[in-house]
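Problem: given the chain below (361 residues), write out its structure.
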Amino acid sequence: MRHRILKEARRVVVKVGSRLVASKGIGLQTDWIERLAAQLAALKGNGREIVMVSSGAIVCGIEKLGLREYPKSLPMKQAAAAVGQSRLMWAYEKAFEKEALKVAQILLTLEDLTNRSRFLNSRHTLTALLDFGVVPIINENDTVAVEEIRFGDNDSLAGMVAHLVDADLLVILSDVAGLYTDDPRVNPKATLISLIPEVTADVQRLAGGTAMAAKKAASYGVATVILGGERIEQLSALFEGEDVGTLFLPQEQQLTSRKHWIAHTLKAKGQLVLDDGAVEALMRRGKSLLPSGITAVRGDFEAGDSVACVDHASREIAKGLVNYSSQAIAKIMGRKSADIQKTLGYKDYDEVIHRDNLVIE
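Solution.
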């Protein structure tokens, strides 16, 4: 299966960690960037399309500004990112130019992907760049992003980008050679895990944000590989069939693009607490969520917003787009759909969340 996945992967997202691109006191690792460009050029020469997600702008800015330590305040981080981003892109521009390849800079915030029309526009732009043979280089727009519109980390961003561009494979270049049974920098007896069939709670504890990125990609049918980036030549070895890094398998039952967007891109703005009957209807019988199954409303949200559905123990069981605001749902919860008109004075939908806009966790 490993051989088949790698052989058939035509569109590949490659995420580059900041420690590989730049380091404190040294600045940009231009030699490494040139080696990376050569590796990616070889992949493109074999008929693959490449999309990059690159960290490193803030670290580059710290070096350029002569700061003695990593900035703590948001404005200082944003200033460093503004200075470092152009420096980082110039390094990529020069490195890829040597390989006769063009690059394009794409800066995103979470807001660009949570808005459906902007999500689709971003997809169309990236598709057009790939059609021109350009290597898009994506980073979070750190100069404007605040907590509410941040991806959290670039591993998470990479998982979303894999969905955004309909990738076949996500490769995360890390400062470790893959996922280990323990931290190999602390425990010399830790062993590399070659294959992860499913991202379980134990895997998430070992891999953190990287595992979540792999989980997001897997639900859309995209495999993920964690690979040691310091030995960048392993990238070619990976596609030549060598057993390097850790491969996360994709899910057999894949979400549609829209449902993946609901599940993994949108942030829930509130919660609906469901009774046991509603939980059963959603999880076992594939039903829509009706007002009769709701026992409580948490948060303030409007119609069309994303909310989490939880059971009486606050375990999240589903996520979806609501047809009514939190205030309206608070009035109709526990009632039958036939009573919505009489209670609210209007009825747009029988369902609070239609099955087409609902994703089971």
